[in-house]
Amino acid sequence: MDTTTTDKTDIRQLRVNGERLWDSLMELARIGATPKGGVCRLTLTDLDKQGRDLVTRWAREAGMSVTIDKIGNVFMRRPGRDDSLPPIMTGSHIDTQPTGGKFDGNYGVLAGIEVVRTLNDHGIETEAPIEVAFWTNEEGSRFVPVMMGSGVFAKAFTLEHAYAATDTEGKTVRGELERIGYIGDQEPGDHPIGAYFETHIEQGPVLEDHGKTIGVVTGVLGIRWYDCTVTGMEAHAGPTPMALRRDALQVATRLMQEVVACAHRHPPHGRGTVGMVHVHPNSRNVIPGQVKFSIDLRNATDADCESMDRDIRGVADRLAAETGLAIRIDLVSSYPAQPFHDECVQAVERAAQQLGYSHMPAVSGAGHDAVYMARLAPAGMVFIPCKDGISHNEIEDAQPEHITAGCNVLLHAMLERAG
Questions:
Q1: Helices then strands (H, E): number in the chain?
Q2: Count of CB atoms situated within 10 Å of the CB of 19
Q3: In 122-247, which ranges are continuous DSSP H helix?
Q4: Residue 175 contacts by C-beta under 8 Å, 6 or more apart in sequence?
Q5: Using one digit for the tens of pLDDT, what is the confidence trace for 26-78?
Q6: Taking Cα atoms as reference points, which of 94, 111, 104 lies closest to residue 44?
Q7: How many CB atoms lie within 10 A of CB 281?
Q8: What's the Cα-to-Cα distance from 294 to each of 74, 256, 273, 275, 278, rounded to whole Å?
């Protein structure tokens, strides 16, 4: 990579304009702004169109060309010296949750725009093109599946499947793409990628807890979702002695505690959560005869996820043998762990180190478009802290200096790959 340009800019000293990036985030956040300071800009709504129009206008003003594919993914391209090379891409999404914040997804897209603006400011050419993408319906709050645009791009599911998805009013993805004018001509996936980076708020409390500015993301946790059913016998709460009860809830709560214990037995990235519980017959003076509850297990590798699966099933078998109650665990959904490419991870770490930012390895417990991009090209992510680890909430917040820091890391990681 050249270390100087016509204006003698030292690449190592290059920094983004953090105030400009912040102002862009705040301007985009006004589209769909909520009274509590958040954003409601659901995918493929009129507000989403306004957001898309604004971001693509900024891209064109920065000299970028804009390409849209058939699922509405948008690619904004800054040419390289060798435009035949696959682009070094960054991006995220600009759709939000109904009670979303200003930074989730939006930061990753506008950080990419700021990278391009900074390169323009200093007259710096890269060998490979730079692209900034935003992906359709990452949040999945109006249409399912989540991460729809990147999933279609990566052939995780078909365009036809995505087109047929409907919202609560029966409107389809295809119809809404056509209505807002963002159904493009390019076949999803017919778009080369040399490497992919995504900058994001952490959406959790780890960086803030450790007092670190940058999370060097090594991968995304694998997820196993289960439905568990414990079956006993309903009986009257008064006449039935304690020793003669077949109380499904008491056995279920023991197993729920073991879900959490299982995560502790598989550190450092084990996660165990029970989020939904249904008690039958759910009456004040009836001993519960059946309890159904969800189990969410996560870990950093598929092997660790499999180990946790064996662990919790073993505990369930022992509880069933001890109590005589039937316990059934059904796997309902599974998402593999996605490690990121060593070279991209190292590029992020080197950038953070060279820029003097405190940093630490991190894993993502949430899904991101980078998960699907990592199936297609070398990929990595940059995390920054968010206040109290809160996201998917109108009070989601991040410090301007952290916003700037993450963008600076993105800039230098992308320059390392782009040449």
A1: 12, 16
A2: 10
A3: 148-153, 159-164, 173-180, 206-210
A4: none
A5: 999 999 999 999 999 999 999 999 999 999 999 999 999 999 999 999 999 99
A6: 94
A7: 10
A8: 36, 9, 8, 6, 9
Rounded Cα–Cα distance for residues 343 and 408 (Å): 18
Using CA atoms, how far apart are residues 298 and 365, in angstroms rounded to an integer?
8
Cβ neighbours, 10 Å, residue 144: 12
Distance (Å, rounded) from C-alpha 24 to C-alpha 187?
30
CA atoms within 13 A on the CB side of 287: 20
- As given in the structure block, the two tokens for residue 191 are 């778009």
pLDDT at position 10, please? 86
pLDDT in tens, 3-13: 334 445 789 99
Q: Which residues of 268-278 are buried (b: 16+ CB within 10 A; e: fewer)?
A: ebbbbebeeee
Q: Residue 167 has which token pair?
A: 């919202």
| Closest C-alpha to 229, from 294, 317, 314 | 294
Sequence length of the chain is 419
* Dihedral sign of CA atoms 363, 366, 370, 372 in order: positive
**Whole-angstrom distance, CA of residue 236 vs CA of residue 231:** 16
Q: 184 to each of 77, 175, 208, 296, how far by Cα in Å? A: 16, 13, 40, 37
Q: What is the pTM of this model?
A: 0.90
Pairing of strands 130-134, 222-231: unpaired
How far apart (Å, rounded) are the C-alpha atoms in residues 331 and 147? 21
- Name the token pair of 316: 């369930």
The pLDDT of residue 396 is above 50: yes
